Amino acid sequence: MKIRKISKRSLPNRASEPWVDTTRRVYCEGEYAFVPVKEGYPFEDEIPDRRPYDGPGYQRMGDTLLLHGDAPTADQLAALIAWENPSCVLHAAAHEGVMRTPKADVLFGQPHDVTFREAGITYTLDPSQVMFSQGNRGEKLRLRSLVRPGERIADMFAGIGYFTLSAALAGGDVHAVEINPVSFAYLQKNIEANGLAGRVIPELGDCREKLTGIYDRILMGHFEAPAFLENALNHAEPGTVLHVHGIGDRKNEISETVEGAGFTYVISEHKVKKYAGRLWHSVWDVKLV
């Protein structure tokens, strides 16, 4: 790869110059950036093409990388840092407890708040403190297509606003309940950042105690949502739609709970993403009739 070596500080001002080959990645090392040069333009040196990173999967949030599953080897971590040039790399093997707190190890840099956009929504969070799954993007968009303006919606596990913000953006009036104080603080910040204060009422606490009245739609974006279904049904009536998340096959469990509460219903399953092995993270849409 033909390159010019420049100061990393000057990179933002040079990125649009005609000699820059924007089809290739800039390589940074220390205070310098090695910028790919288009064919036909003067260059200073040639360096071997970098091999793409081939280690464990990761997601990028702002300038921070978050790895799941197996931890990378030292060589894989070095390759990832060279490939993505992040300011921080975290490994979150799991999320703990009802508050879904990441069990995160810092592999590089220092954790901090990051801000990024996904599907037209701005999120701010510290990935070492609260969870965020980019694998839920399709489900957020699907939810946005289902919500009708003016619906009264409960989000029982609001987190930092994963589904709350999508539902409010579609015109729903959302009662967003979150039990984790850290996540709740980011939820409030994200509501304001997206101009949705008029559509969301955030509330800190246990959703089993905070729901009030009847809702048109109830969002249950937690892997153990079926265990909370009986509480949700206390705030539902014919016409209410519940979106019940879970891992593996939970359809029979959900059906038994709904029938036990005396409702007739229509249920459909939507796969969100692979979880582990042959297990899927799915959501069951339950419409009471």
Brief sketch in words of this structure:
The protein has 289 residues and is α/β, with parallel strands linked by helices.
Number of domains: 3
Q: What is the rounded Rg? A: 23 Å
CATH superfamily grouping of the largest domain: Vaccinia Virus protein VP39
Largest sheet: 7 strands, mixed
Multimeric status of the protein: single chain
Class inferred from helices and paired strands: alpha/beta
Q: What is the number of helical segments per DSSP (H or I, 4+ residues)? A: 8
Overall shape: it is elongated
**CATH structural class of the largest domain:** Alpha Beta
Question: What is the CATH topology of the largest domain?
Answer: Rossmann fold
The CATH architecture name of the largest domain reads 3-Layer(aba) Sandwich
Neighbour order of strands in the largest sheet: 13-12-11-14-15-17-16
The tally of beta strands, per DSSP, is 17
Instruction: Please provide the ordered H/E string of secondary-structure elements.
Output: EHEEEEEHEEEEHEHEHEHEHEHEE
The amount of beta strand, in percent, is 25-35%
Low-confidence stretches: none
Walkthrough of the structure:
A hairpin with a 2-residue loop joins strand 2 (27-29) and strand 3. The chain is built from 8 helices and 17 strands. The mean pLDDT is 91. The longest helix is centred in the middle third of the chain and has 13 residues, at 181-193. The protein has 3 domains: 2-46, no CATH class; 58-112, no CATH class; 134-288, Vaccinia Virus protein VP39 (Rossmann fold, 3-Layer(aba) Sandwich), CATH 3.40.50.150. It has a 7-stranded mixed β-sheet. Helix content is 22%, strand content 35%. The protein has helices at 11-14, 74-84, 137-146, 164-169, 181-193, 207-210, 229-233, 251-260; strands spanning 2-7, 27-29, 32-36, 45-46, 58-61, 64-67, 88-96, 101-109, 114-118, 121-125, 152-155, 173-178, 200-204, 217-220, 241-247, 265-276, 279-288. It is of the alpha/beta class and 289 residues long.
